[in-house]
Amino acid sequence: RLPPCVPRLQPHVPRRVLTRFSHDLQVVDLPLPAALQSLCATLVSVAASLLVVCASALAIALPLLPAAWCCRAAQRLYAASARELKRLEVGARAPLLSQMTEASEGLATIRAYGAGRRFEAEYYARLDASLRASLASALAGGWLGLRLELLSAAVASLFAALCFAQRHAPLVLA
User: Fold this and answer.
1) Distance CA 105, CA 39 (A)
2) If we measure between CA atoms, which residue out of 35, 147, 140, 139 comes closest to residue 78?
């Protein structure tokens, strides 16, 4: 029996609610500071680059508007898909975690009835479903990354062509 000073879980609080809450806290606590730091560094870098480009040649900055529109369109398409994929991933992970909890609590009973092989097969089936959802999410992220890399390459090529044209025919872009 625990002393009264030690906080105890209330028996009416479902374990899956506590598991979900702890997972949500982990998702917020671990990657959020790094993501905010990366966002700030990227924003400063982009702002400085845009300032230099616009100050040196305004005609070179004009293709940035269609490129920004394309990035926004790809982001909108990806965000909707990523939200659904994340929901599928969480839904596929829940049965896996549930079975792991049940198996660890009833390990003596599983061994007594010789049902270890059956539980192992169920575990691997649920693990496969969870990994399929994770793979789909990773593939969607790769899809967005590829599209943004191609767009970046197209913008860089256009900038290079405009710089070349500016050097060889200064009156064209002036």
Assistant:
1) 43
2) 140
68-82 exposure pattern, b = at least 16 Cβ within 10 A, e = fewer: eebbeebeeebeebb
Query: What pLDDT sits at residue 100?
Result: 84
Task: Give burial (CB, 10 Å; 0-12/13-18/19+) of 64.
Answer: middle
| Mean pLDDT of the residues in the chain | 79
Q: Please state which of the ranges 2-6, 66-70, 160-164 shows the lowest mean pLDDT.
A: 2-6
Q: Kindly calculate the radius of gyration of the chain based on its CA atoms and give it in whole angstroms.
A: 26
What is the secondary structure of 122-163 as a DSSP string?
A: HHHHHHHHHHHHHHHHHHHHHHHHHHHHHHHHHHHHHHHHHH
**pLDDT for 145:** 87
φ, ψ of residue 107 in degrees (nearest 5): -60, -40
Which amino acid does the sequence have at 101?
A: T
HEC profile of 106-121: CHHHHHHHCCHHHHHH
Q: What pLDDT does 56 receive?
A: 74
CB 62 within 8 A of CB 162: no
CA contacts within 13 A on the Cβ side of 12: 0
Which tens digits make up the pLDDT trace of 89-105? 888 888 888 888 888 88
Q: What is the pLDDT of residue 21?
A: 62
Q: What are phi and psi for residue 130, nearest 5 degrees?
A: -65, -40
